[in-house]
Amino acid sequence: MKKDILTIKDLKKEEIEWLILRGLELKKMGRDVNYRPFVGYVLGLLFDKASTRTRVSFEVAMLRLGGDTIFMSSKDTQLSRNESIEDTARVLSRYLDCLAIRTYSQQVVEAMAKYADIPVINALTDKYHPCQVLSDIMTVKEKKGRVEGLRIAWVGDGNNVANSWINLAKKLDFELVLACPEGCDPEELKDVTPNIRVVRDPKEAVKDADVINTDVWVSMGQEEEAEKKKKLFYGYQVNRNLVNLAKPDVIVMHCLPAHRGEEITDDVMDGPNSVVFDQAENKLYLHEALLEMLLLKNERGFLWKQKR
Question: What's the order of all strands across the beta sheet hosting 196-199?
Fold first, then answer.
Protein backbone atom coordinates (compact mmCIF):
# COMPACT_ATOMS: atom_id res chain seq x y z
CA MET A 1 0.00 0.00 0.00
CA LYS A 2 1.49 3.33 -1.05
CA LYS A 3 1.48 6.51 1.05
CA ASP A 4 1.35 10.09 -0.20
CA ILE A 5 2.55 13.21 1.64
CA LEU A 6 0.35 16.02 0.34
CA THR A 7 -0.06 17.91 3.63
CA ILE A 8 1.08 17.47 7.23
CA LYS A 9 -2.39 15.99 7.80
CA ASP A 10 -1.22 12.84 6.02
CA LEU A 11 1.17 12.05 8.87
CA LYS A 12 0.45 10.77 12.36
CA LYS A 13 2.21 12.32 15.35
CA GLU A 14 4.48 9.29 15.79
CA GLU A 15 5.40 9.39 12.11
CA ILE A 16 6.42 13.04 12.37
CA GLU A 17 8.49 12.26 15.45
CA TRP A 18 10.12 9.36 13.60
CA LEU A 19 11.00 11.61 10.65
CA ILE A 20 12.60 14.18 12.96
CA LEU A 21 14.74 11.63 14.77
CA ARG A 22 15.61 9.72 11.61
CA GLY A 23 16.60 12.94 9.85
CA LEU A 24 18.96 13.76 12.71
CA GLU A 25 20.40 10.23 12.58
CA LEU A 26 21.02 10.52 8.86
CA LYS A 27 22.68 13.89 9.37
CA LYS A 28 25.00 12.35 11.92
CA MET A 29 25.79 9.51 9.50
CA GLY A 30 26.73 11.99 6.78
CA ARG A 31 28.21 10.42 3.65
CA ASP A 32 28.12 6.72 4.45
CA VAL A 33 29.17 4.95 1.25
CA ASN A 34 28.07 1.63 2.73
CA TYR A 35 24.45 2.75 3.16
CA ARG A 36 22.86 2.94 -0.29
CA PRO A 37 19.31 1.56 0.08
CA PHE A 38 17.94 3.32 -3.01
CA VAL A 39 20.04 1.54 -5.64
CA GLY A 40 17.64 0.84 -8.50
CA TYR A 41 15.11 3.46 -7.39
CA VAL A 42 14.24 6.58 -9.40
CA LEU A 43 12.59 9.73 -8.01
CA GLY A 44 10.77 11.98 -10.46
CA LEU A 45 10.70 15.73 -9.83
CA LEU A 46 7.86 17.45 -11.68
CA PHE A 47 8.26 21.19 -11.09
CA ASP A 48 6.27 24.19 -12.33
CA LYS A 49 7.95 26.64 -9.94
CA ALA A 50 11.55 27.74 -9.60
CA SER A 51 13.52 25.98 -6.89
CA THR A 52 16.98 25.92 -5.35
CA ARG A 53 16.83 24.15 -1.98
CA THR A 54 13.91 21.80 -2.60
CA ARG A 55 15.19 20.54 -5.94
CA VAL A 56 18.83 20.18 -4.93
CA SER A 57 18.09 18.58 -1.56
CA PHE A 58 15.76 15.97 -3.09
CA GLU A 59 18.27 15.18 -5.84
CA VAL A 60 21.21 14.91 -3.44
CA ALA A 61 19.14 12.82 -1.00
CA MET A 62 18.49 10.23 -3.70
CA LEU A 63 22.04 10.29 -5.07
CA ARG A 64 23.71 9.93 -1.67
CA LEU A 65 21.56 6.92 -0.85
CA GLY A 66 22.25 5.24 -4.18
CA GLY A 67 19.21 6.27 -6.22
CA ASP A 68 18.63 8.42 -9.29
CA THR A 69 16.40 11.36 -10.17
CA ILE A 70 14.70 12.68 -13.28
CA PHE A 71 13.80 16.37 -13.37
CA MET A 72 10.82 17.47 -15.47
CA SER A 73 9.22 20.84 -16.04
CA SER A 74 5.53 20.51 -16.82
CA LYS A 75 5.95 22.77 -19.85
CA ASP A 76 8.35 20.19 -21.31
CA THR A 77 5.88 17.32 -20.88
CA GLN A 78 2.65 16.48 -22.66
CA LEU A 79 0.79 18.14 -19.77
CA SER A 80 1.54 21.36 -21.66
CA ARG A 81 -0.44 19.94 -24.59
CA ASN A 82 -3.46 19.01 -22.48
CA GLU A 83 -2.64 15.40 -21.68
CA SER A 84 -4.72 14.61 -18.61
CA ILE A 85 -3.26 14.38 -15.12
CA GLU A 86 -4.85 10.94 -14.87
CA ASP A 87 -2.99 9.60 -17.91
CA THR A 88 0.26 11.29 -16.89
CA ALA A 89 0.09 9.82 -13.40
CA ARG A 90 -0.54 6.32 -14.70
CA VAL A 91 2.35 6.50 -17.17
CA LEU A 92 4.85 7.98 -14.68
CA SER A 93 3.89 5.22 -12.23
CA ARG A 94 5.26 2.69 -14.74
CA TYR A 95 8.66 4.43 -14.87
CA LEU A 96 9.27 5.91 -11.42
CA ASP A 97 9.29 4.77 -7.79
CA CYS A 98 8.24 8.11 -6.30
CA LEU A 99 7.16 11.52 -7.59
CA ALA A 100 7.70 14.94 -5.98
CA ILE A 101 5.62 17.79 -7.42
CA ARG A 102 6.18 21.54 -7.03
CA THR A 103 3.32 23.49 -8.54
CA TYR A 104 0.68 26.13 -7.95
CA SER A 105 -2.57 24.28 -7.31
CA GLN A 106 -3.04 21.83 -4.46
CA GLN A 107 -5.62 20.08 -6.65
CA VAL A 108 -2.87 19.08 -9.08
CA VAL A 109 -0.90 17.10 -6.49
CA GLU A 110 -4.11 15.60 -5.11
CA ALA A 111 -5.21 14.47 -8.57
CA MET A 112 -1.77 13.09 -9.38
CA ALA A 113 -1.76 11.14 -6.11
CA LYS A 114 -5.25 9.80 -6.79
CA TYR A 115 -4.26 8.20 -10.08
CA ALA A 116 -0.61 7.32 -9.42
CA ASP A 117 0.41 3.91 -8.12
CA ILE A 118 3.57 5.37 -6.57
CA PRO A 119 4.00 7.70 -3.58
CA VAL A 120 3.45 11.38 -4.39
CA ILE A 121 5.12 14.15 -2.38
CA ASN A 122 3.96 17.75 -2.25
CA ALA A 123 7.19 19.69 -2.77
CA LEU A 124 5.23 22.98 -2.56
CA THR A 125 1.89 24.32 -3.66
CA ASP A 126 0.30 27.70 -3.09
CA LYS A 127 -1.59 26.23 -0.12
CA TYR A 128 0.89 23.93 1.63
CA HIS A 129 4.61 23.25 1.98
CA PRO A 130 4.79 20.17 4.24
CA CYS A 131 8.39 19.18 3.48
CA GLN A 132 9.62 22.63 4.46
CA VAL A 133 7.91 22.59 7.82
CA LEU A 134 9.11 19.05 8.57
CA SER A 135 12.72 20.11 8.05
CA ASP A 136 12.03 23.26 10.08
CA ILE A 137 10.75 21.33 13.08
CA MET A 138 13.72 18.97 12.76
CA THR A 139 15.93 22.08 13.08
CA VAL A 140 14.02 23.19 16.18
CA LYS A 141 14.57 19.77 17.75
CA GLU A 142 18.26 19.86 16.83
CA LYS A 143 18.85 23.31 18.28
CA LYS A 144 16.52 23.24 21.28
CA GLY A 145 16.65 19.55 22.19
CA ARG A 146 12.86 19.40 22.33
CA VAL A 147 9.70 20.57 20.66
CA GLU A 148 7.22 20.11 23.49
CA GLY A 149 6.37 23.24 25.42
CA LEU A 150 8.16 25.67 23.12
CA ARG A 151 6.67 28.97 21.99
CA ILE A 152 7.09 29.34 18.23
CA ALA A 153 6.26 32.67 16.60
CA TRP A 154 5.44 33.22 12.96
CA VAL A 155 5.77 36.81 11.70
CA GLY A 156 4.45 37.74 8.28
CA ASP A 157 2.10 36.42 5.62
CA GLY A 158 -0.36 33.61 6.26
CA ASN A 159 1.02 31.69 3.30
CA ASN A 160 1.57 28.02 2.44
CA VAL A 161 4.32 27.62 5.04
CA ALA A 162 2.14 29.22 7.72
CA ASN A 163 -0.68 26.82 6.82
CA SER A 164 1.67 23.88 7.25
CA TRP A 165 2.92 25.21 10.59
CA ILE A 166 -0.68 25.32 11.78
CA ASN A 167 -1.21 21.72 10.67
CA LEU A 168 1.96 20.74 12.50
CA ALA A 169 0.91 22.50 15.71
CA LYS A 170 -2.30 20.45 15.65
CA LYS A 171 -0.13 17.31 15.81
CA LEU A 172 2.67 18.29 18.22
CA ASP A 173 2.71 19.89 21.64
CA PHE A 174 4.03 23.41 21.14
CA GLU A 175 2.49 26.88 21.18
CA LEU A 176 2.18 28.62 17.81
CA VAL A 177 1.52 32.37 17.70
CA LEU A 178 1.14 33.93 14.27
CA ALA A 179 1.41 37.67 13.67
CA CYS A 180 -0.30 38.51 10.38
CA PRO A 181 -1.83 41.74 9.08
CA GLU A 182 -5.57 41.96 8.77
CA GLY A 183 -6.68 40.12 5.66
CA CYS A 184 -3.55 37.93 5.48
CA ASP A 185 -4.54 35.18 7.90
CA PRO A 186 -3.73 31.56 6.96
CA GLU A 187 -6.58 29.51 5.49
CA GLU A 188 -5.95 26.73 8.01
CA LEU A 189 -7.07 28.83 10.98
CA LYS A 190 -10.48 27.18 11.03
CA ASP A 191 -10.85 24.48 13.69
CA VAL A 192 -7.55 25.35 15.39
CA THR A 193 -6.53 23.83 18.69
CA PRO A 194 -6.02 25.94 21.86
CA ASN A 195 -2.23 26.08 21.35
CA ILE A 196 -2.64 28.11 18.12
CA ARG A 197 -3.62 31.77 17.86
CA VAL A 198 -3.26 34.79 15.58
CA VAL A 199 -2.39 38.30 16.71
CA ARG A 200 -1.88 41.53 14.80
CA ASP A 201 1.09 42.85 16.76
CA PRO A 202 4.44 41.13 15.97
CA LYS A 203 5.75 42.25 19.35
CA GLU A 204 3.04 40.25 21.09
CA ALA A 205 3.84 37.19 18.97
CA VAL A 206 7.58 37.16 19.69
CA LYS A 207 7.42 38.03 23.39
CA ASP A 208 9.30 35.26 25.25
CA ALA A 209 9.40 33.16 22.07
CA ASP A 210 11.82 30.24 21.73
CA VAL A 211 11.65 30.37 17.94
CA ILE A 212 10.92 33.20 15.50
CA ASN A 213 10.00 32.19 11.96
CA THR A 214 9.38 34.35 8.92
CA ASP A 215 9.12 34.19 5.14
CA VAL A 216 8.95 36.56 2.17
CA TRP A 217 6.07 38.97 2.04
CA VAL A 218 5.45 38.33 -1.66
CA SER A 219 5.22 34.66 -2.63
CA MET A 220 5.85 33.22 -6.09
CA GLY A 221 3.00 34.14 -8.39
CA GLN A 222 2.06 37.26 -6.39
CA GLU A 223 4.58 39.64 -7.95
CA GLU A 224 1.85 42.00 -9.19
CA GLU A 225 0.88 42.59 -5.54
CA ALA A 226 4.43 43.43 -4.42
CA GLU A 227 4.04 47.14 -3.69
CA LYS A 228 0.68 46.69 -1.99
CA LYS A 229 2.04 43.91 0.23
CA LYS A 230 5.16 45.83 1.18
CA LYS A 231 2.99 48.64 2.52
CA LEU A 232 0.68 46.18 4.28
CA PHE A 233 3.56 44.40 6.00
CA TYR A 234 5.33 47.54 7.19
CA GLY A 235 6.05 46.87 10.86
CA TYR A 236 6.32 43.08 10.41
CA GLN A 237 10.04 43.06 9.74
CA VAL A 238 12.11 40.67 11.86
CA ASN A 239 14.82 43.05 13.05
CA ARG A 240 17.05 43.28 16.09
CA ASN A 241 14.49 45.27 18.13
CA LEU A 242 11.88 42.57 17.56
CA VAL A 243 14.28 39.70 18.30
CA ASN A 244 15.28 41.35 21.58
CA LEU A 245 11.72 40.84 22.87
CA ALA A 246 12.10 37.06 22.63
CA LYS A 247 14.09 34.81 24.93
CA PRO A 248 17.86 35.45 24.90
CA ASP A 249 18.50 32.05 23.30
CA VAL A 250 15.76 32.41 20.67
CA ILE A 251 16.51 30.91 17.27
CA VAL A 252 15.51 32.79 14.12
CA MET A 253 14.39 30.86 11.06
CA HIS A 254 13.62 31.72 7.44
CA CYS A 255 12.81 29.10 4.81
CA LEU A 256 14.57 31.14 2.07
CA PRO A 257 14.95 32.76 -0.37
CA ALA A 258 15.09 35.91 1.74
CA HIS A 259 14.49 39.47 0.63
CA ARG A 260 17.03 41.02 2.94
CA GLY A 261 15.99 44.40 4.20
CA GLU A 262 12.30 43.60 3.78
CA GLU A 263 10.98 40.79 6.02
CA ILE A 264 14.35 40.29 7.76
CA THR A 265 17.42 42.45 8.33
CA ASP A 266 21.00 41.47 7.58
CA ASP A 267 22.09 41.75 11.22
CA VAL A 268 19.43 39.21 12.26
CA MET A 269 19.86 36.82 9.37
CA ASP A 270 23.64 36.76 9.81
CA GLY A 271 23.52 37.20 13.58
CA PRO A 272 24.12 34.83 16.49
CA ASN A 273 20.47 33.79 16.83
CA SER A 274 20.09 32.81 13.20
CA VAL A 275 19.89 29.12 12.21
CA VAL A 276 18.77 29.89 8.67
CA PHE A 277 21.51 28.01 6.86
CA ASP A 278 21.40 25.02 9.22
CA GLN A 279 17.68 25.00 8.50
CA ALA A 280 18.36 24.92 4.76
CA GLU A 281 20.91 22.11 5.16
CA ASN A 282 18.44 20.02 7.13
CA LYS A 283 16.12 19.76 4.11
CA LEU A 284 18.59 17.23 2.72
CA TYR A 285 18.41 14.90 5.73
CA LEU A 286 14.68 15.25 6.25
CA HIS A 287 14.15 14.38 2.59
CA GLU A 288 16.36 11.33 3.00
CA ALA A 289 14.20 10.22 5.93
CA LEU A 290 10.98 10.97 4.06
CA LEU A 291 12.10 8.94 1.04
CA GLU A 292 13.04 6.07 3.35
CA MET A 293 9.57 6.22 4.82
CA LEU A 294 7.91 6.04 1.42
CA LEU A 295 10.21 3.66 -0.44
CA LEU A 296 11.42 1.14 2.12
CA LYS A 297 9.90 -1.10 4.75
CA ASN A 298 10.82 -0.80 8.40
CA GLU A 299 10.04 -3.07 11.35
CA ARG A 300 8.37 -0.15 13.13
CA GLY A 301 5.76 -0.02 10.41
CA PHE A 302 6.40 3.57 9.28
CA LEU A 303 7.88 2.61 5.93
CA TRP A 304 5.36 1.06 3.59
CA LYS A 305 6.48 0.40 0.06
CA GLN A 306 8.92 -2.43 -0.56
CA LYS A 307 11.16 -2.48 -3.60
CA ARG A 308 9.44 -4.18 -6.49
Answer: 196-199, 175-179, 151-155, 211-214, 251-254
Kindly tell me if the per-residue pLDDT of 300 is higher than 50: no
The per-residue DSSP string of 60-98 comes to: HHHHHTT-EEEEEEGGGSGGGGT--HHHHHHHHHHH-SE
Q: What is the pLDDT of residues 138-195, one digit of tens each?
A: 999 999 999 999 999 999 999 999 999 999 999 999 999 999 999 999 999 988 899 9
Q: Which residues pair with 69 in a beta bridge?
A: 43
Q: What separation in angstroms does the CA of 218 have from each of 90, 232, 269?
A: 35, 11, 18
Would you say 106 and 123 are in contact if contact means Cβ atoms under 8 Å apart? no
The answer to whether 250 touches 273, Cβ cutoff 8 Å, is yes
CA dist., res. 284 & res. 261, Å (int): 27
Other C-beta atoms lying within 10 Å of the C-beta of residue 266: 11
Domain boundaries, the chain: 8-128+281-295, 132-280
- Residue 103 · residue 49 · CB < 8 Å: yes
Query: What is the fold of 132-280?
Result: Rossmann fold (3.40.50)
